[in-house]
Amino acid sequence: MHASEGVRAVAVARSVAASLGLPADEAAVLHDSNKLTLRLLPADTLARVAPADDQVAEFEVGLARRLTEAGCPVGALDPRVEPRGYERDGFVVTLWRYYAPAADEVTPAAFADALARLHAGMRALDVPAPRYTERVERALQFLADHARTPGLAPADRALLQETLRSTAEWIAARGAPEQLLHGEPHPGNVLATAQGPLFIDWETCCRGPAEFDLAHAPEEVGAHYPGVDAELLRRCRLLVLAVITVWRWDREDLFPDGRRMGEEWLARIRAAAGRE
Which DSSP string do the residues of 134-174 spell out, in sequence order? Predict the structure, then answer.
């Protein structure tokens, strides 16, 4: 968030928590992106704050509740308050259980096991969600809008367009089964806790092959996931790389050091296409 918006978001989170009987004298920022994640003390609750016009709080809360009830490895909502989004002063706040970090990092085997269990639970849910291809279409729209991605050289723009289209077509032709997915189960959305790895953040939930989720995880995880299609995973990794590269070239991107990362990822895509 922009600095001024972040200050307001912190104040709103503290106010909401206090009004629910959760004292929030202190607020520590744990993550800052399109939404703010805070640890509020002394209540020791986790608050996620998003602008009211850019949030899917009710969807996230509802899905998290169902996954928790199904025994999936997910971060739970704070049981001390009603599970819903609390709207105030242009923001929506959701409150979650805070988990103290485990001493050890999540191993690739533990990551794969947790993701496989999450996928098993998600297969049993009938939840409307967009297909992963909507992300590809949005990236292509950004590329077609030169004013939105002004820093891209013509050759790089063409390479990204070609990579997105051809890779998405290959994946579709593979005909792999599709299911409800987390959408972005990268390490930043996995908590290392005493209970084992727990997945958080459901705003990117989508439908697609399991390999699309695996493409967001560290490469070592794929070797431990049961029944993985190695070639499909490789193509999904390339597709995801192309999509997130487009986001880094968005003129409105606020990701820290985003342009440098965009340059590095473009070089990887060029290498994959044999253009270096």
Answer: HHHHHHHHHHH-TTTSTT--HHHHHHHHHHHHHHHHHHHHH
pLDDT in tens, 213-262: 999 999 999 999 999 999 999 999 999 999 999 999 999 887 888 899 99
User: What type of residue sits at position 239?
Assistant: L
Sign of CA dihedral 3, 7, 8, 9: positive
DSSP designation for 54? S
Q: Which residues contact 232 (CB under 8 A, 6 or more apart)?
A: 171, 174, 176, 209, 211
| Rounded Cα gap, residues 268 and 256, in angstroms | 20
Q: For 193-257, where are the alpha helices, taking DSSP H only?
A: 210-214, 219-222, 230-248
- Sign (positive or negative) of CA dihedral 133, 201, 80, 15: negative
- For the stretch 115-129, pLDDT in tens is 999 999 999 999 999
Please give the torsion angle defined by the CA atoms of residues 136, 140, 142 and 144, in that order, rounded to the nearest 10 degrees: -170
Residue 256 confidence (pLDDT): 80
